[in-house]
Amino acid sequence: MLISLVLIPLLAAVAVSALGKKHSFLIGMLGTLLPIIPMGVLAYQFDWTGGDQYQFARSWPWFPDLGLSFSIGTNAVGMLLLMLSVLLGPICIACSLTAVTRRVKTYYFWLLVLQSALCGVFMARDLILFYVFFEFTLVPMFVLISLYGSTNRKAAAIKFFLYTFTGSVIALAGLVYVAWFNASTFGSTDVIRLWTFDIGILQNAATQMPASTQAWVFAALMLGFSIKVPLFPLHTWLPLAHTEAPTAGSVILAGVLLKLGTFGILTFAIPFCPMAAVEYAPFIATLAIIGIIAAGLICWVQTDVKKLIAYSSVSHLGFCVLGLFALNASGLQGAILYMISHGLSTGALFLCIGMIYERYHTRNMKELGGLAAKMPVWACFMVFFTMASVGLPGLNGFVSEFLCLFGAFQAGDAWRGLAPKGTGWTPGELGPTFAAVAATGMVVSAIYLLYMLGKIVFGPLHEPHHHDAHGQDGDHEDAPKLPTDLGAREIGILLPLAALCLATGMYPKPLLDALEKPVMATVATVQQAREKARMAEGVPPVALPTASAPTSVTDSADHAAAAGAVPAQTNNPSNPSATKEGAH
Hints:
Helices cover 66% and strands 3% of the residues. By secondary structure, it is mainly alpha-helical.
């Protein structure tokens, strides 16, 4: 059933290309709705209490002479991102019904191929298979932007492709070096490890690399994945791509495609090179904080509301990277939760802006204002998703942002001596200063998002002068006529996202419980690398405080990490005695 998440959209894409334009939308909708069935069964069968283990593992020979296999499987992090991808698939198809009226067959074909490739990324357990899926996502998105984007779509598509392709090639070089290191170091004594690309085996080998080697591999991996996030100063391709992409392209780009970068950092950069991750965590965190604040300030001066939301993605994902490089349970849980939260709320904001653009064919805040008077249903959704993006307590954005900042606050060696025993402080290179500066980004975010609401939602009604009674203008005469306010289809598109934003904000415990063990496995790997570095420098191991009675899931994870405890079922990737099956 796991591989069906890749095959169903791919087969639907073939059907779209074989049949006529008339059936493209129906086939596209079926191709994205049908995966919900196996996804639901997999989510029910998945052992969420053992989320660090890769489940539903299957492997077929691919090129055995080269050590390649078609290996799949997923842990709790991959499952959550798969569920997000499957959720956004039919939403993107549904929002395209009236938005795309030309080259319809080509459009749905590439949208379905993109859905298939995205699902493949989160289940691949062979390094080359992962890279094939990872890189192939560029092709559908390039086509969607270049053929169906706005006026500057060609330049946006080329910039998007060149940036991300170049970074991916550099990341591939780092990953292949790890495979060579594994073969050259262990090949003479362990035949199984002779030129294998199994991710679990390579992770075990990579942690044995010297610190200097880890630094070079870490740099290559971070360059490739940071462009995908994107992390400051490698972010310049994103606002243009977001602004010029069609609505569905922006939704899938914000919802899932950007998460390939953070997923790559979490799956490869940190576990493969834990000593380098510890060493360069302050540098990466500093870049993330600069991105948080700089992108937020840029949002202040935007007049194009879609470009404003695009720059806000750079700012918000800075919190995600900050949480990752806190390298403790709170930060990692917050970062993973932020991947989900950002996909829901920012994807929904792009949908709301797309619905306005279909009616007025402008995104300029100087031409739009007071739309709540004419479109009250749309205004309710717009306010709701903006509050979720701001981080209003009770909605999904607050939980993830708080955990990212709390993780950075806790991760400070210099401050632990000032804290009483049992307060959950963890070893790390960040601390309260990093958290305090990053927290100003939340204030900046609230200012520009509330300013946007005040301009286009509230106040006296202001519409473009070329707008007619049917919501069309002279350049879009072939576009279908839309109701003044949102119709049933559009409400149905936004309601599931609103429900999930509310549910995960009010009760995030199931998600945090599911993420606890995979996060603890990463924390244990980093902690062992940190102590290994201390021993190499002749520094005695740090006696970390523990608490007798943790009060929450996050506290429990942090205290377990501080005590150096690893759950009994956790697969420890840096344990040389781990078997191939254990790595899976």
